[in-house]
Known about the structure:
This protein has 35 helices and 28 strands. It is an alpha/beta fold.
Amino acid sequence: MNPVEIEAAVSDLILQPFDGKEFPFAFLRAFGNKETTIKRLLSGESNKSDLGGVLQSNNIHIAVVENTDSVANILSKLRSSRATTKAKARYILATNGVDIEAEDLDTGETIACAYRDLPDHFGFFLPLAGITTIKQVRDSSFDIRATSRLNRLYVELLKDNPQWGKAERRHEMNHFMSRLIFCFFAEDTGIFSGASLFTKTVEQMSARDASNVDEIINKIFIAMNTKTVDRVRTNLPRWADVFPYVNGGLFSGEIEVPKFSKIARSYFLHIGNLDWTKINPDIFGSMIQAVADDEERGQLGMHYTSVPNILKVLNPLFLDSLREELETAGTNQRMLLNLRKRLTKIRVFDPACGSGNFLVIAYKQIREIENTINDLRGEQGRKSDIPLTNFRGIELRDFSAEIARLALIIAEFQCDVIYRGIQLALSEFLPLSSDNWITCGNALQLDWLSVCPPTGTRVNFIGDNLIVEPLDQSEIEFENEGGEIYICGNPPYLGSTWQSKQQKYEMQEIFNEHTKGWKSLDYVAAWFFKAANYGKHAKADAAFVATNSICQGQQVSILWPMIFETGHEITFAHTSFKWANLASKNAGVTVVIVGISRQPKKSRRLFSITDGGSVIVKETENINPYLVEGPNIIISKNSTPSVELSRMNFGNKPVDGGNLLFTRDELDDLHLTSEEHKKFIRRIYGSTEFIRGIERYCLWITDELYDEAIQNHYIHQRVKEVRSIRLASKDKGANKMADRSHQMREMNHGLEQTIIVPSVSSERRTYLPVGLLPGDAVVSNLAFAIFDAPLWNVAIIASRLHIVWIRTVCGQLETRLRYSNTMGWNTFPLPRLTEKNKADLAQCAENILLAREEHFPATIAELYESMPDNLREAHERNDEVIERIYIGRRFRNDTERLEKLFDLYTKNSYSTKSIKKGKGLKTL
């Protein structure tokens, strides 16, 4: 269940008559517990409560007060209960149907409220549903409750008005929802005269069977689109005439309203009875946008970008600079005035704005700085000079674009209330401006210079209905010209595999003239390139959230030379971290934040997370495209490894149509004698076979044993099939191999042992799944092999240092980690090793292998999904030994690891290779 569904279930529970015996089970159902789980608790099979309540292990201990005991006293008994401790319950909850109290035993947080107010606190219990909550969302349960009810209304209206759900009318439906949201907010914040004016008018004037709800709402909308001087000739009923003129394009144009059923009317009234003063435009928009999207509705309440994450972009992009200038100004009136003037000219542009999160946060932060200036200048309550139209966006979906504009309008009003007082805020709020500063369109096909024109450019357009006007009418006059432009946002990521035909076309249009390798780029790369080209014509800095793959592997050599050619440099970056949403089973994609600029910077800031979870900031002269301190270099392939490392090769490629390979059952069908099996069959390993422990075998026939081998009928048939396949191939190399159809393309193997390294493995593992095979094992071309090499090579491959290097320079295949011998192994920077170093590393490798053996027959996949303690300790010891060889201590985090590796790589490359110099770029 998602948070919206949980909120709805909790709200439904509270509406039912309280039943003390049923409550604990109904409560658990509301948080997604299956009926099988409930039945086990009801039967007592899994209920271990020692207080006559309901105890679910690892989750919650619930008790209902049925005597004179107080709720607080029962909660205390739950807290001290041995059963609570033994079952490792996270929550305790006590209620009597009037009051309710609960505690999170992990954090010590508590709630105490009236039973009827439990839905206001449902976010407190979200971990019961396996949802890892972000505190800000949990503390802002209103936004999820509002989303839940709006979703119910939306679905019900589409059920009653199926034609409104079709493509040609979906926009009208979405626009109608935007109008409702504004009205609900306006009636609770004093924008409309009279408490709950909108909801009460619809409730009082509409029939209970809902037959005329659409007519009532229609009249109200007409009133809000009609100026007071024009109302005489419109014959508005008195109950509609009390609504103010809103304008702003929000109520202009088509005023048709969908038909309401009794259920839809009931949902409408429930929404209106919420306290809309609690709306948080920072997150509400990103939640509500999913209401209008059939595919996303299943994830309602999880579309959330946390404010701290947004500030990771905005702070180093420009907010930190503003705050530093404010601190420097102190109480100097002239400096404060200059800073305030600077604020009025700043333009923030999000070309993938969604529901406006980045723009809303940027606006609120700038207003906060402006208010501090006003306080320091003794001008409290001064009208803001920060125009909303300086916060521009492009959004593909019309409903999200409307919500973005609405969120900014609400943010402006809320800021005015905070900094100027409710009376002044109300007096200047209406009518809304009809300027349209959020463009609905495809950001990759629009000219950003037109949507957000650079300094000195003036474009004019004013209209009545800009919220629904076409793209060519989106330009308006900028206020306060001559300032900085900051481009930011969280564009769609989409690796090349997941891009639609339309998206591939857009990528081709943007990159085709610049690089032949554009097909390998993530979709988000196009936003970086467009921002870089925009920056050639305007004083603009840019920063985007992106998949970390644009700073890894082959994408680095494709994208970043093009960006550097425009004169941009990386000015700040956040190295890889999880951009998490609310779903515990979806921990979020791993992202980076990269800021670029053509404006000279004294230093660059590199943000990274230590192994302990804290954030460190490093000032550096340069950040390279791998997001590492150092010169702008591109890692190139090496045909051979460093002097110390053993040679790594691809395994043996069958080119056989599967005829040289066998499962265990297929091998039995050959009816081989034990002698034949010993001579002609070997165990073969690719990535999957090694990682998942799958048994697979292959024919391994040397030339001198060929005549003997084909005496076996079954082997002969297999060899004939291989010959036919190779001869029929269009590959000339395969044709040549037909003469030795009893063999694979290569026949490489170890004499004593073989180190195997899978070519593709899960990105979730902390370490690469390297292994040691016996000498007679065969490695297929789906893995890499090092034959008869010293064991210390295993320690290098199994280290944290090595997987960090592989992730960075090799990148990923879809979401999996991709290994490359020429890019990853042969380029791996290794200091000179002493014989003592090698002996220590060999011992570490042996310890890792022995730790695995203790858990036989567990597979590599199982061992590295949830690592046993002894295996983890063996890896930790290995990391400590290796890292001490590099710097004499453990590295603090992956960023520091990469910095050392790149430093070594650069030094080694300078001494052994010629350097190709490009514009700010060195390919080594």
